[in-house]
Write a structure and sequence with these properties.
- This protein has 119 residues and is mostly beta strands.
- Helices cover 0% and strands 55% of the residues.
- A hairpin with a 4-residue loop joins strand 7 and strand 8.
Length: 119
């Protein structure tokens, strides 16, 4: 079993920065793919970014490309989402997720961390 715990959310002004962390415990070596998702009030959960293996390949949603950076430190069992130039539309609960394979459904989810961007 794997547990994922997000941290680092909070209140930030428009244009500000924030770094989210996702700490894994348990059978973390089994996790190949890690991703960030977010859900704003009244909206569906949406994909933000994904990172594979040792971090050599990443993919971003168009809405965050150039502003967010996903990374992972497998030695620390931790994934990060560095967010720059935050906008009000980035306000959401951010979730990290992990899966054993390259694609398919995510097997594990964190509980979420709130990010609020105020104008």
């Amino acid at each position: 079993q794997v547990q994922l715990v997000e941290s680092g959310g909070g209140l930030v002004q428009t244009g500000g920065s924030l770094r989210l962390s996702c700490a894994g415990s348990g059978r973390t070596p089994s996790i190949y793919t890690l991703g960030w998702f977010r859900q704003a009030p009244g909206k569906e959960r949406e994909f933000v970014a994904v990172i594979y293996g040792n971090g050599g390949r990443t993919t971003y949603a168009d809405s965050v490309k150039g502003r967010f950076t996903i990374s992972r430190d497998n030695a620390k069992n931790t994934m990060y989402l560095q967010m720059f130039s935050l906008k009000s539309e980035d306000t959401a609960v951010y979730y990290c997720a992990g899966r054993r394979g390259y694609d398919g459904e995510y097997d594990y989810w964190g509980q979420g961390t709130q990010v609020t961007v105020s104008s």
